[in-house]
Amino acid sequence: MDERDERHQQPAGGEEPGRSPDWKSGLVKPVLGLAASIVLTLASFWAAGTQLVWGPGVPVLLAALAIGQMGVHLVFFLHVSSGPESTNTILALAFGVFVVALVVFGSLIIMAHLDAGMSAGGMHGPACRQALARTGAGAADTAIERAPPADRHWNPAVRRNGNPYGVPCC
Amino acid sequence: MNAVAVAAVRDAEVPVSERGPSPRQVIVSYGFWLFLLSDIIVFSAFFAAYAVLAGRDAGGPGGSQLFHRGHVLAETGCLLFSSFACAMMSLAIGLRHRRLMVLGAVLTFALGAAFLGLELTEFGDMLARGATPVRSAFLSAFFALVGLHGLHVATGLAWLVVMMAQVFTLGWRPMVLGRLVCFSLFWHALDIVWIGVFTIVYLGAR
Fold it and tell me: Scanning A19, A81, A157, B118, which has the fewest C-beta atoms within 10 Å of its C-beta?
């Protein structure tokens, strides 16, 4: 290795490929990371089964614990830091997180809307045909037609009664 | 004045834009980091598919009937301690301590294999109960996502064996050391993906 190689003790996104200083200073990060990960993992499993936390709050708590643990892994195992040698790593990471969020939340939102438009919240196939037969064909659609256009989307009454988009469901 | 001190003085004077290309290892690590991020984006598509289809069990068995928390906790522990053993292996490599490196590698491999074994047992149990990937959209998405992660772990195990063979045949060459750094990045990234899997798939099961 020439001197240029030795300058960079901490390459982007990884441990130094050269020599580590010694066991003592090298052990600190992994041991801290392991301890924090064990605590966060056990907390996640506890949170998923507990009655102590308000029900709808549990997913939020789980998400917070998971993001915290991912941060612990990034800092203590993947050695991502706030130092100047990590700038490119963090920029790439930020872009990666952005794309991941776009893919996941974009899919969830688009599929939820498509689902609401196509199958009217579970009223699909035989169930829908029975409902139509009971009320007379098209009655469900008339209820939706009567609602002001702006309400069709978000009005809970319209959503409960049937298809919020007025698309025939069966 | 040694080479590092000379470089430090030069760093203080020369602006970043004029220092020329970074050392090879920095560029290789950064490139591998970009690969890992793109791999995580692939995973995100599988996560999105699972999140959309999680409730669509087509009258078949749902997540809460199929998953066992204790089993998942054991899998998580295996992968976490495997990650820790991998960090120990990296440390031993930094100290050029071959025996400790082998110990770290053996522990990393054993815990990774134990994880894979537990996962395959779980899959086998589910298949035996009729919860096959063709049963429902939920199960298709489940096997695709968790199976993809398992496939990555299996690839990582094979890679680890190859790396050990390279250390013993080629020695501490910069090329081999660089690959070992990439392996440890890969292994830790798989643990990050598993955090998402156990939180969303297993703990979030309805």
Answer: A157
